[in-house]
From TrEMBL, chains A, B:
Pfam family, one: Aldedh
Statement: the UniProt record of this protein carries the keyword Methyltransferase: no
Residues of the Aldehyde dehydrogenase domain: 6-463
Entry keyword annotation includes Disulfide bond: no
Originating organism: Pararcticibacter amylolyticus
UniProt lineage: Bacteria, Pseudomonadati, Bacteroidota, Sphingobacteriia, Sphingobacteriales
Any one Gene Ontology molecular-function term assigned to this protein's record: oxidoreductase activity, acting on the aldehyde or oxo group of donors, NAD or NADP as acceptor
Keywords, sorted A to Z: Oxidoreductase
InterPro entries: Ald_DH/histidinol_DH, Ald_DH_C, Ald_DH_N, Aldehyde_DH_dom, Aldehyde_DH_Superfamily, ALDH_KGSADH
Protein known as: Aldehyde dehydrogenase (NADP(+))
Length: 521, 521
């Protein structure tokens, strides 16, 4: 779908697969060509000027219209997404709500208008030795953004997900590279965006969507001279490949790659002693939520050997072994999960604490939850144990004492999240560990679970490498918009020709930093 | 100077050169070794934990103490900097004031404390279907920063310049790679930082400074695993070489390279007709200020053919041919300037409007100001004419009409600044040109000159590639601090263990965005 038109230049066709049964689903999908990608980017660049100047109200109306069109799809969308992703209906309904919620959040952000970070330093004509000029700056959209759909969020991180919503909110046209695991879901959502664009009078090039069963279209999109930024949520390998492609361009552009992590959970002795069963039941649920297919899945549990830890392990093992098996997103992901988790169980010193039963006839699509254990010494010496295994798997590291716990922490790479489970009175004792953990993560949680990423202003979903390739930005929450902008300063400009955000009298009534104070005056 | 100690592991020695005479200046300087670089980074990493938690007051006191120690150097510093850079005494005095002013600005920023962008979304325990957690985030320093001293600002963009001041303000230790053109100036300033660190009780590793007459130490610093960010102001070639080195690391880090630009000035017909002499005198001064050795030097003037333009050219030619010659920063820069400007004059269609006389005996160090002219057609077809020539040179492009002027604008790459010289009543006619220009620049100036970059909150000194490699950040003004931080979110954290910036009751009384409203409450 290039700038409002459906094209099928390629004669090849691919089909969607029912994740649970492996059967083909209805619908023919055409891989895009290099020409399609070029057309989409030229149309996006053409639409950019009109779209970036369309005004806050109309841009917000467009975002709200997308949300409304997606809601209007109702059961048709849910059924298709369930079939393609293997995720249960309740999850897809929840994710649809999150998707429309994100679109409406960004619409509100645009309507309110303060997100542009307007900064005004007024002139001081009498300053000595030199007069100070009037300087005003605000954030401006960078241009066409390429969004890669993610396999694990067929709605909330796909065609009209957080990346698309935040890029459109910033004023950037979007070209989506559809994830081949949910082409039908994508077609429905893409059509919803098209209807919303037409209904709100947006330029056609503001949105395009390209299919590909392989990698070539993605490569063309990332290398295209008109592309100004790229977003990706997925594997380390995939993210790094895109970052490398971007680094080879003659004009550099940012790639925002969220590549997942193992999200360590530190279980402090007090909590293990006082409430091992509560912790176990919280974590059995978090590790296996959505078949463990979340970027924030807790893949690593750390504790100091104690009776409490023993009780926790025994309860968590019992609960995880009873977890019903679940359909994974694709047969490939399922196969990969089982291969990697079985390989880790063969690593030196790793023992199996629990493995759930697979159920159903379509075994190729079903995940078994796995809890493994290892000593701190073995964990520290084996980098392989620190790699993410995408699925309902967690590794429990047993430390002898606090010193060894600190060594484990020191061996960890960058993470999206880190969690501490502890009693209020023992936290002060572990401030050094907590401080070390804060240095390797984007979000640090107390007595919760890392799964369930709140979409709000204060959210940071992005941690030090290799969790992401740029820890300065977030892909969840309203600050995701800051990935697609750059500042522009206007010096001694004529007031009426300034953008309204920077004009005297503050006509949009936004928050602005005027001579270093935030004000709406 | 590694973490407070002077080391001279290398037996090689190099000397400073008097820019005007070519003679050696007193003082032996020792190139650093790979071991020195490693020691400096390990000391920086060791100091990081203490330094980032030192508190706003003490960090600000350190910055103010550096400023005071630099001021106390007085004439010793001025004389040495004049000798090494060839810049006149008034310029060096002014630059010293700017340097201490920057340090004090960042001290104020740190004391005031709001720069950390604290964002708080409070819990909603009763929200359905899921309770909303309490999430609070703020910016945190990334770790050791490597600063490359710039040749053209021996004080304000060197050892204790804007990069160092903003990195120290952010809470990051700094390792400076000294520019070999002003080693003695650097030694004086480095000693001032050392004294300030000792007087305010800072950890020794917070600052190190390494010499090298070549490139190898810089390469080691950029590639070192403990380096978290790099700043550079200089040539396109130098900046891109550092960016490439960083891209080859196994863990990516940002390089902030400000690589200069030609800073186009569009002369609108009304102003040319009404005040050609005023424009000419403004620009004769701006083009030749500091021997044209500013990143924001106006290297390109654009106008539509008219009587007014003819008057402007004739007056500007007269003024520029009368400009006294000036000592350039280094004999190499001077040679490069004359070679490149003479080569451009040989390009097809380029004519010489004015060339000033060289004076004095030391011709190798003296610049002649040059004004050249070319038609729009020739300019558009020859990319070489769009390259920066570092020195007192400007090229005037003559367009037939507004359409051709727009084509010239469309041929331009990213710029640090763009300037419009126009009468109030004619600006509305040129909104399309102005809009196009706004898309390729970091700062857009009306009826001024691009030289003279105000150090303030609203300044943006950083434009689209190739002016910089990352137009999202600025290297001048208080926002320069945002190059060295990343957000960290705290979820459901115990209030007393949060950083003070995020605690209930706002103990530091900073501006915070609480539930999407800026407040000091």
């Amino acid at each position: 779908m290039v700038a409002g038109r459906y094209v099928s230049s390629e004669s090849r066709v691919f089909h969607a697969i029912n994740a649970a049964t492996g059967e083909s689903l209805p619908g023919d999908f055409y891989p895009a060509t290099e020409q399609d990608a070029d057309d989409a980017l030229k149309a996006a660049q053409g639409a950019f000027k009109e779209y970036r100047l369309v005004g806050n109200e109309r841009r917000a109306a467009f975002l709200r219209a997308i949300a409304a069109e997606i809601s209007a799809l109702g059961a048709v969308l849910t059924e298709r997404a369930v079939a393609e992703s293997g995720l249960p209906e309740a999850r897809i309904s929840g994710e649809t709500g999150r998707t429309t919620g994100q679109l409406n959040l960004f619409a509100s952000l645009v309507e309110e208008g303060s997100w542009v970070d307007a900064v005004i330093d007024t002139a001081q004509p009498d300053r000595k030795p030199l007069a100070r000029p009037d300087i005003r700056k605000m954030l401006n959209p960078v241009g066409p953004v390429v969004v890669f759909g993610a396999s694990n969020f067929p709605l909330a991180f796909s065609v009209a997900g957080g990346d698309t919503a935040s890029a459109l909110a910033a004023g950037c046209p979007v070209i989506v590279k559809v994830h081949p695991a949910h082409p039908g879901t994508s077609a429905l959502v893409g059509a919803a965006i098209l209807k919303a664009a037409a209904a709100t009078g947006m330029p056609e090039g503001v949105f395009s969507m390209l299919y590909d069963s392989g990698y070539s279209v993605g490569e063309v999109l990332v290398g295209h001279p008109l592309t100004k930024a790229v977003t990706f949520t997925g594997s380390y390998k995939g993210g790094m490949a895109l970052a490398k492609l971007a680094a080879e361009r003659s004009t550099p552009i940012p790639v925002f790659a969220e590549m997942g992590s193992i999200n360590p959970v530190v279980l402090l002795p007090g909590s293990l002693q006082k409430r091992p069963h509560e912790l176990a039941s919280k974590y059995a649920a978090s590790i296996t939520l959505g078949a463990g297919q979340f970027c924030t899945n807790p893949g690593l549990l750390l504790g100091i050997k104690s009776e409490g830890l023993d009780s926790f392990i025994s309860e968590l093992s019992k609960l995880m072994s009873e977890i019903p098996s679940a359909t994974m997103l694709t047969p490939g992901i399922c196969k990969n999960y089982h291969t990697l988790s079985e390989e880790v169980l063969q690593e030196k010193g790793v023992s199996l604490f629990a493995r759930s039963e697979k159920s159903g006839t379509a075994e190729f699509s079903q995940s078994a939850a796995i809890l493994a254990g290892v000593t701190a010494t073995e964990f520290i010496s084996n980098p392989r144990l620190r790699e993410e295994i995408f699925g309902p798997y967690s590794l429990l590291v047993l430390a002898e004492d606090e010193a060894e716990l600190e060594q484990v922490v020191a061996s960890l790479e960058g993470q999206l999240t880190v969690t501490i489970m502890g009693e209020e009175e023992e936290l002060e004792t572990y401030t050094d560990v907590i401080d070390s953990l804060s240095q390797i993560t984007g979000r640090i949680i107390l007595n919760g679970v890392p799964t369930g990423v709140e979409v709000c202003h204060a959210m940071q979903h992005g941690g030090p490498f290799p969790a992401t390739n740029d820890s300065r930005f977030t892909s969840v929450g309203s600050d995701a918009v800051y990935r697609f902008v750059r500042p522009l300063a206007w010096q001694d400009w004529k007031n009426e020709l300034l953008p309204p955000e920077l004009q005297d009298g503050n006509p949009l009534a936004i928050w602005r930093k005027v001579n270093n104070n935030w004000t709406k005056d």
